[in-house]
Structures are given as structure tokens and as C-alpha cells.
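Provenance

Sequences were taken from public entries as deposited. Structures were produced by running a predictor on each sequence independently, with no templates supplied. The record for DUF2892 domain-containing protein from Shinella pollutisoli is shown for reference.
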Amino acid sequence: MTLDRSVLAFAGIMVLLSVALTVWVSPYFVWLTVFVGANMLQSAFTGFCPAAMVMRRLGVKPGTAF
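Predicted structure for DUF2892 domain-containing protein:
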């Protein structure tokens, strides 16, 4: 799996997890969804993604976007 797909998979997991936590634990977990969405938006414009930096250090092979 390339870095691009890994970042997208991680973002998807985080969104689904935050929605589940919002429903079953506390409505304040919706802020995690907001944070993930804002981070995805800023990385689309700037190319800076902290998750991609961490995954790159873990040895995930690079893709075309990150």
C-alpha cells in the first residue's frame, strides 16, 4: 500500500471512529471529525500532512501525492 492510500485509509478510519464515538460516548467527539476534515482540507492546499510524515518514518513506501 502506498503512502497516499495509507493516509486516505487512516483519515477514513478516524472519521468513522469519531462518528461512532459521537453517537455512543459524547457529542463532543464531533470536534474530532471537524479536526480531521480541516486537516484534510489544509493538506489538499498546502501538501503538508502530519500523518504522511509519521507513516513515511514508519516505512510506508511513497506515493505520488505525499
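The chain has a mean pLDDT of 93.
Helices lie at 3-24, 30-46, 50-57.
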